[in-house]
Structure prediction request, 322 residues.
Amino acid sequence: MTSATLIFAALVFALVLTLSLAVLSRWLPDPGRERLTRLTRLNTQNPNFGPGDAAQASAWQRAQARLLSALLWLGPWTAGLSGGEGDTPSSLRLRFGHAGWRSPVALQIYFISKTLLTLLLPTLAWSVLNAQSWPANSMLRMALVVAAAGVGYYLPDAVLKLRVQRRQLELLNAFPDALDLLRLCVQAGLGLDAAIERVGREMRFARPVLSEEFALTGLALRAGSSRAEALRNLSQRVGLKDIDALVSMLIQADRFGTSVSESLTVYADALRTQRRQRAEEAAAKLPVKLLFPLIFCVFPSLLTVLLGPVVVTLAREFMKVG
Prediction:
């Protein structure tokens, strides 16, 4: 197998993966973010917004509408091929909410990328192996093709899981500071609804993910949802057990009339302690993780530099003696 063939296969794989991730994360409209943008800043009030920008925006909206119709047409077919029937889409929508992908066609794009990767990767592997005539054993060649199909099938799941973990960790690290600001706002005289909206606005640059969640909660409260329902929706969107406990505490404090500021103080201290413990745990794991690069990378280089001249000198002396 030549290096050019390997490079071509790697480039095709990277292109398919990059296009899938780009469509999921950037190309599709986010309804929540669009509502927040319309509420905070109108493009028509911007003096720099000219006719060319309006024409470009309308062309982009038409392209998005065509893409949306195509995805909605392909969605049921790809969902059937990828095992997306039954109760699977509801759980997947919940996972997409945890990942922050709230586009109405994110599920269809997920199934399309899963189907395309499952079909394209084994086809590419089969063509490359046949072109190189390697391996000679047909069973081993078929096993490699099946392995490529398995990688293509489970790769979107792995990407989605990684995205959920990163976003939940970011939210978990941001909540203690947000609870401190929330406590200060409540002690200053604001209600809990106004405090949530104010904290979301104040943290939009430092913690944009948490600011978005608080902004959605504020929109739900202004739309007429009850405080308990809005907080439960926040807990469902985040998907963390610690936030579930926080929401239950706030609902109980609101129901029984206990002090919200004291509850927030206690829970913020608990979350900050957990964050420090996670940092200490990661620091304790660091020596074990550094052991493998030290053994396989640093020590061989160090021994080569230290013992290399000695070995060369001894070899020359033995050659002279011989």
Remarks:
- Confidence is low (pLDDT under 50) at residues 42-49, 81-89.
- Residues 260-321 form the longest helix (62 residues).
- The chain has eleven helices and no strands.
- Residues 314 and 320 are 10 Å apart (CA to CA).
